[in-house]
Specification:
Elements lengths: L1 E7 L4 E7 L4 H13 L8 E3 L20
């Protein structure tokens, strides 16, 4: 599942023309967890992956985000 800005895996970037609504419940959870860690943030995008029991994910590097 992708939320808000959707990632273009071919171009390895987020596209401003491919946007959906960020779920309010996920934004609230994100901000609550950040607050507990004494951080302040505004969630802009999320990628949620589901892996069934017994599956694995290979090594990778999330390096497309700006710092």
């Amino acid at each position: 599942m992708s939320a808000r800005y959707h990632y273009d895996w071919t171009a390895r970037s987020y596209r401003a023309d491919n946007v959906s609504k960020f779920p309010e419940s996920l934004a609230h959870l994100t901000c609550s967890l950040a607050d507990r860690a004494q951080l302040s943030l505004v969630p802009e995008a999320a990628i949620v992956n589901y892996y069934p029991p017994g599956s694995t994910m290979g090594g990778h590097l999330d390096d497309a985000e700006l710092i």
